[in-house]
Amino acid sequence: MKTTTLLLLPFLSCLLLAGKPPAERPTVKPAEVGLSGQALAQVDAKMEELIKDQRLAGGIVVVARKGKIAHFKPYGLRDREAKLPMEKDTIFRIYSMTKAITSVAALMLHEEEKLGLDDPLSKFFPSLKNLKVHTKNGLVALKREPTVSDLMRHTAGLTYGRTGIPASDQAYKKARVLDRNLAIRPMVSGMSTVPLVFQPGSDWRYGCATDVLGGVVEAASDQKLDAFFQERIFKPLGMTETGFYVPKDKVDRFAVNYSYKDGRLSVKDAPKTSKYLENPTFLSGGGGLCSTADDYMRFLLMVSGGGKLGTERLLKKKSIRLMTTNQIPKGGGWVSFGTQVREGVGFGLGFSVRVKMSDWDPDGRVGEYGWGGAASTHYWISPKDDLVVLTLEQVMPYSFNTEWALKGLIYDAIED
C-alpha cells in the first residue's frame, strides 16, 4: 500500500494543480532597464480613462525591456456583469495573435528541411495544383503556384471569403473554409475550387493563408497542429495556459468578450457558454488560440531574444530576421484593409513590419514589428529600443484605441 501511494503522488499532484497557472515571470523596477516609472504611471491613468469611457471593460498591459518585465498590470474587470476583476492570469481569446505561433512552427520545420519556403502548396496538397485567379474577365490560370512564404506574408491571394464577389465568396462557403467542425487537412484539400484574388506574390491581402499554413505544418510534421504546438513550442517555453480551448477547470479565469457599439459595451461571448470550452475539430492556425499575458509574453520574449528564451532555442537568428523584416515582393504594396492603406507598413514571415514613417500610427518606430487579434489584443516590438509591449483586452470589433493611446507614452518612458 505504501509503494502504491508513493507511485500515485505525482499523479495526485497533477490533479491538484489542474487549472492552476504557473508562477509569473519576475518583474524588475523600470529604472533597472532604463524606463521611467513616473512616465509609465501615465499608462495606468490612460487605461482607467479608457475603462471609464466604456471603450473596454478591462485589460492588461505588459512592458519588457532588455529581456526583463518592468510593468505588468491588470486594469478594470474581466466580467462587468459579475463584477470580477481583471487579473494577471486572466485567459483571453487571442485570435490572430495565433498567426505568429503558426509561422514559428513553419520556420522550425524549414530549419529541419521538412519544408521549403519556396515549396508550392501542391507539394503538400496535390489538389491545389491547378488553382485559378479571379479577374474582371473571369478565371485565369496561375503564373506560378502560391508558396509557403506566400502564406506567411499574405501574398498568396487568399481571403476570408468576404470579398463582395459572389462567385468567390460562395466558393469559400462551399469548401467550408474555417468550418469549426472540419479538420485542417480535409479543409485545405477541399479548397481546390476557391479562386485567388490576384496572382501569387503580386499583392497583399489578409485572409485564411495562415490557416492553410497550419495544414502545411501538419502535413510536413505528420502531427496535428495542437500536438506540434504543445510539444515543440508551448512546453519548451513554459506556456502552460495556451491552447485551442479553455478547460472547464479554468473557465473562472476566462474573460468575457464584449461588443462595442454606440458608446456602449454589451456581452458578445460569455465564458460559461462559450464555444471555446469545447475542443474544436478545426485547429485554426490563423486565429484559434486562447492564452494569458504571461504565456504570450514568453513567446514574444523568445522572438525578441533572437529565437531563444532562457536555455530554450526554438529558431535560429536568421529565421527571426525573416519574420521581422519586410518580405513583401517589390510592387506588392503596403499592408491594407479595404481603402485603409497603412503606408510604410510591410509584412515579414509572421509579423507586420514598419519600413518607413507616415501618417499611419505616427507614434510608431521604423523597424517596429507586431500584430494583433480580433478582440483588440495588440503587441509590438521595437528592436532598436529593446522593447516589447503586450496589451490584452476583449472588445470587438477590432480597435487600435489601446495601442495608440499607450504607444507614445511607453516610448516616452525610455530614458537611455
Question: What is the fold named in CATH at topology level of the largest domain?
Answer: Beta-lactamase
Q: What is the CATH top level name of the largest domain?
A: Alpha Beta
CATH hierarchy: architecture of the largest domain: 3-Layer(aba) Sandwich
Structural class: alpha+beta
Order of helices and strands: HHEEEEHEEHHHHHEEEHEEHEEEEEEEEH
- In spatial order, strands of the major sheet run 3-2-1-18-17-16-15-14
Could you give the distance between the termini? 63 Å
Radius of gyration: 21 Å
State the helix count.
11
The overall strand count is: 19
Return the domain count: 2
Largest sheet, strands/sense/barrel:
8 strands, antiparallel
CATH superfamily of the largest domain: DD-peptidase/beta-lactamase superfamily
Judging from the principal axes of the Cα atoms, what is the shape?
globular
- Give average pLDDT, whole number: 94
**How much strand?**
15-25%
Helix fraction?
Answer: 25-40%
Which segments are poorly predicted (pLDDT under 50) over 5 or more consecutive residues?
1-19
What would the keywords be for this entry?
single chain; 416 residues; alpha+beta; Beta-lactamase; 2 domains; eight-stranded antiparallel beta sheet
